[in-house]
Design goal:
Blueprint lengths: L6 H11 L8 E2 L2 H7 L2 E6 L9 H10 L3 H4 L3 E4 L3 H13 L3 E6 L4 H9 L3 E5 L3 H15 L2 E2 L6 H17 L5 E5 L4 H13 L4 E7 L4 H8 L21 H10 L2 E5 L1 H15 L5 H12 L1 H4 L3 E6 L12
Parallel strand pairs: 2-10, 3-4, 3-6, 4-5, 7-8, 7-10, 8-9
Antiparallel strand pairs: 1-2
């Protein structure tokens, strides 16, 4: 399989964004590893700028734009973390940012986007409404659309989180990410393929938004009607560019219910004293729910973000 991105592409993205991002820590917890029955290494993207890994892909996409395209600005749609990433990257690059957000997006994410000076347009909480609103703005402004996940520059940026993890922790038997639109997982798939092919790649997905799981079963992209989950960052429909990469590398996708996601989130808060959002708890829930798969193994876990509305905690 010849992939559309090389290891050199990912390393270039890392070089491009490194001056602007945090190299997030890899944390361990003896107690959590004991509960899970395996040795866990958490790549803490909840400590990333904007509180999520999306800063990586957003910055790489904006900084990769030619100068003439930057003039008209950038536009995207997102429930929050990618929105903040593009808003921050646009501010750093000195270009206008037009962000489409569903009305139901968490308040903390709305405030985050606004704080970077982006122009926000709210839409109905459907994929169709997001896409149509963004297309209208693009037509009016001439801004360049940057997909939250279905974009090779975004994927290369997200891949840098896994690159750093493999650089820091040797001999991982498995790596697991949350999966929504697929940028993080596609990036992890590429880095695993190039950098650590013996490592098995897995993903955790909410049971109420299982389009990746169903798509892999069917062998073709299969959207889910009206996805629903507490993991709001994982409600996006898998992108075709991401799917084409992921299906070649991934071992399995594990589905988890909202109560299991909340339980895993609470455990990380209580045992590790760090704040993660529901989407970041999904791979943790998947490990706890599939202990036989991971038993006794060295497992990397990407904690994707920590943007939680503290006024609406699920526990």
């Amino acid at each position: 399989m010849k992939f559309p991105l090389t290891l050199a592409d990912i390393q270039s993205a890392h070089q491009r964004i490194s001056p602007f991002i945090h190299r997030t820590p890899v944390m361990t917890s003896e107690l959590v590893s004991e509960i899970a029955g395996c040795e866990l290494f958490f790549k803490c993207e909840n400590f990333q700028k904007i509180g999520a890994f999306k800063a990586r892909g957003g910055l790489n996409a904006v900084l990769s734009l030619p100068e003439e395209q930057r003039q008209s600005g950038v536009v995207t749609h997102s429930s929050g973390n990618h929105a903040q990433a593009i808003a921050m990257a646009a501010k750093m690059a000195g270009v206008p940012a037009y962000i489409v957000m569903p009305e139901t997006a968490p308040e903390i994410k709305k405030k985050g986007v606004a704080s970077y000076g982006a122009q926000i347009t709210f839409c109905k909480p459907t994929q169709q409404s997001r896409e149509e609103t963004a297309a209208n703005i693009q037509q009016e402004t001439g801004a360049t659309f940057i997909s939250p996940y279905n974009d090779y520059d975004v994927i290369a940026g997200q891949a840098t989180a896994s690159l750093e993890l493999y650089d820091e922790v040797e001999n991982l038997d498995a790596l697991i990410t949350p999966v929504g639109g697929g940028g993080l997982t596609a990036g992890a798939a590429l880095v695993t393929h190039y950098f650590s092919p013996k490592t098995k790649l897995y993903a955790g997905e909410p049971d109420g938004a299982k389009d990746t799981y169903v798509s892999l079963q069917n062998g073709t992209l299969t959207p889910v009607e009206s996805p629903s989950s507490i993991a709001d960052g994982l409600l996006a429909t898998m992108g075709d560019k991401n799917f084409d990469i992921i299906k070649e590398v991934i071992e399995a996708v594990f589905l988890v219910t909202d109560p299991k996601i909340v339980g895993a989130m609470r455990m990380i808060w209580e045992r590790m004293k760090i704040i993660i959002e529901p989407s970041a708890a999904v791979p943790v829930a998947a490990i706890l729910d599939n202990k036989a798969t991971f038993e006794g193994k060295r497992v990397g876990v990407i904690l994707s973000g920590g943007n939680v509305d503290l006024a609406k905690l699920p526990f």
